Model the fold of this input.
Amino acid sequence: MDGIRRGRMNYRECFEEGRRILTDAKIEEAELDARLLLEYVCGTRRHDLLVHGDKEVIKVQLDKYFLLLGQRAKHIPLQHLTGIQEFMGLTFQVNEHVLIPRQDTEILVEEVLKELHDGMRILDMCTGSGCILISLLRYSNDCVGVGADISEKALLVANENGKRILGDHDVKWIHTDLFEKVEGKFDRIVSNPPYIRSKVIDTLMPEVRDYEPLSALDGSEDGLVFYRRIVQEAPKYLECGGSLYFEIGYDQGSDVRCLMEQAGFVDVEVVQDYAGLDRVVYGTYVK
Done:
């Protein structure tokens, strides 16, 4: 690899070598990541590999590309190297202090949007990067939002994403342990809380296990501790007829549904993702 790096390489050669390096490192999506890193470094798009594959890559870009490849080969997440992740058609800044937004979570946003009306107040509990709340506000009219998180560093990321995507839109970020510092009532409460069982953490992909914040992953022994706390406290912060929406793990639908029904929520539904796995639970609270 060092010999190749010192020589001249065109766009296609860079990509092929990047793919080989990541494949050897057992990166799950080696071809995709090699291409995305090359596009990031060179400021190009997907079609450039086909149309301009013989274009020489300048030395500064070549050096940066192979530096990033070396980091990705250590299983540092691609998004931590580029600093961004697409979600709901929007570009979010991410780092090691927040969970990387995932396509599965778009199901949660889509379900909330179905019943989100103009002017509603939204609380996003465990907001992380702010991707859920910001998306809801971006695709609705005159709604106001509060994002809550126990991590001050995560809230800095959420605040920056909010400013960049929403401008001067009415959104507030609160540093709090769940509802401790939350005030007022809301029409919709949404949450993607930590829900992975503690004993499962060590079995996760190294990109997740070693580089994403443990506090945003670990849901205690049975993965349900945050659901219990939020379900018990949420009614005090919901308007009559307000709704609570959760993202859940694939095997938690029945448990979270029972928790909500026992707390007085009605019309509780479990929604599956595009893979046919349970992904969202929501219900309405009527006093």
The longest strand covers residues 238-247.
